[in-house]
Structure formats: C-alpha cells, structure tokens
Amino acid sequence: MAYVAVTGGQEAIARANELVGCYRLRGSEHSLDVKQLERQLRLLVDRMMGEGGLYAPEYAALALKQAEGDPAEAAFLLRAYRSTLPRNHYSRMMEPSEMRVIRRISSSFRDIPGGQVLGPTYDYTHRMLNFSLRGESAADIAAAMQPFMEDTLDGMAEYSAEGDSRYSFKKVADLLREQGLMAQVRSTGAQEREEEPFDITRQKLTIPASRSARLQSLARGETGAMTALAYSSMRGYGVVHPTIGELRVGYTQVHIPHPFRQAGEAGEDSGDSVYIGEMLMTEVETINSFKQDSESGNVQFILGYGLCFGQNELKAIAMAILERSLETKGAAPAQDEEFVLLHIDSVESGGFVSHLKLPHYITFQSSLDRIRQAQQTQMTRRDDKQSEGPQAKPKEEKTDANDRAKAERESGAVSSIGI
Fold this sequence. Notes:
Distance between the termini: 78 Å
Number of helices: 14
Strand content: 5-15%
C-alpha cells in the first residue's frame, strides 16, 4: 500500500485534538475520578487489562477515561504504554489451583468438594434496568455495603484461624484424573517447568505456533471476536461443544526470584522467592469429547483450558473452546490457527480497519488513473464501431422498409376479412 506524509493542516489537527477534550468534558461540572472508574466499572477494567496485556487496574481505568469509554482505543493505549516499560523480573510459575477463590462453579457436577461458590455474578439476575441507580446516594451505598462489611470481619477471624484451606479448593479436573477419566498432567518435571515459553511480545508469531504462543495470543484477544468464533464452533462450524468442568475466579499470588540470590544457588521449587502481590484471574477448564489415549490406550476426556486477567468469564470460556478447537483438524474457521490467532487481536484488527481513515491519496489516485484509462479504452472502441456503422446502414434501412410494407399488407388483408 502507498501512503503520503501529511505536512499541511497541522493547525487543524491540533484543534481536532483540543476538540476531543472539549467533547469529553462538555456538559460536566466534575471530571470522572479514576478510582471510581476502577472500582465501579471493574468488569470493563478487567477486560481492558486482558486485551492490553498489562495487569494495572488504575492505568486501565485511566485509559478508559482518556478514550471516553471506547474499549478498542483504551486497549490500544494500554498496549502502547506497556511497550515502554522495562522488564525487571520474571515471576515464578503461578498455580491457579491455589488461588484465593471468590467464585467457583461447575456445570458438569452438582456436588463438588467445597461446594458451588456462586460469588459475584449476573448469571441469575433479571436483565431489567434498575432506575433507582440514577439517584444512588452515599447513604444507599453505605446501606448496601454494611452487611458485607460485617461478614468480612467475621470471615477474617475464621481465615486467620483456619489458614488458606478455607478459600482454596481442589480442582475438579484432578478428581477426574484420580479416576482415570482424564489424562495426567505430564509437564511436572523440574526441567520441563524451566523451559522458557514463547514470548509473543518479543518474538514474531509464526504459524504453526507452539501451545504457549497460542495461549498467550488467546489470553490477550478481544472478547467479542473470541466469543463469536467459539459460538461458531458450538453451532456446528467446528467440532467443539464442551461442558464446563470448573470455572473459578480468584486471587493468585505472584512471586519473583529473590533479587540477591546467586545464579544457580536455588531452583524453581526451592522457595527462595519474594512475594510481590496478587492478581485477580479467571480460569476455566472445559470437558470435551473423549478419545483413546495413544500411550496408555485408555479412553479419556479431553481438557480445554482458558485463563485471563480479572473477572472475564465469557472470554475465559471462549478461550478454552478455541484452545481445544485449534487442536482439532478441519476446515471450520475456529479450527484454522492462522485465521483465529491473527484476527482476535483488537489492536491489530482495529488498527488495520481504522487506518483506512488516514490519507490514501496515492492509492486512490492509481485507482482513478486505471478507471479513466478503462473508460478511454471503452470510448475508443465505441467510436471505432460507430465509424464502421454507416457502410452497413442502407442495407438495414432497406430491410426495415420491406418489413413495414409486408406488415401493412397483412394488416390490410386482415381488415378486409373483418369487413
């Protein structure tokens, strides 16, 4: 494609940027507080962190404020900011099975160890507008929070007495593995755990991609695009239509190697690490159709896996479906690795579509030249045909005169018979 540098209209561009600020604030006496956006638009903030590839709730809220709530623009801002940050440490391998759960359900089993923990969800609510939220006051907020504050204080006392076991649960997939209904996890050796995964932020994604590259691409994919592709597979344009073995939302601890540890002094599992915080994550494990294991010969269920920042259950489910779908062979869109991985990225797809608004003068000028040349060729051929036309015209006129005379005679004969 051809582009030209825009050198004129710089003042107009500057004014357009100023106008964005005007439209963002017009009709408002107070600016939106970033902390309020972070706390009260948490699901949108979680989605932006996932698509931006940066776990920073405050910065995600700031990006949403700057982008006037446009998810694509906010994800672009986060991704651009992320590219400027230095990489100081690599975290230890995280264990979602040990997360501090706030929500955990299974649609495959009614009774699971620890029970179903519904947690914060809209799954069981009526989709009706709550008009009382228009006049929500500080007193209403305090009244809504008071019961949960009391439960939190009681829970903290029990938590300190019982330890982490009250908030961590055994995974449903592990129960199936114990019964021989699902393949065992093979990547348990220290050497396998030390293998560095593919980094899509520093290496160009190539097709076919490794599983780590696929999971990274899916983890920061656009929620709507992934949902559409997963839905297509479930409707028949694919072979994956799973049930959810377990969906869990919770906080996972993040550790980094001790900064003063000497190289080779301690391994991955030595515990020589520093706790730096925790991240809210959503993990989904789906149970798909069964097949015969090539090594053991046993018939076992196949697992699909999804993991993303924050509470974004729709994306995690779609990720588990697509992750499994890409392992199958077929001609469906959801089974095409290149089609899926290169089209779910909101920054890539949105940027390429949006760039059509930028100057394409040379590109369009070439199209104008081609269509004018085609029109000129067409006119030349038409003129050539017209120049050859008069030589054959008298013969055509004579034939037409004979046809009219014959028609008049036949008409007169019919009239005579009628009389």
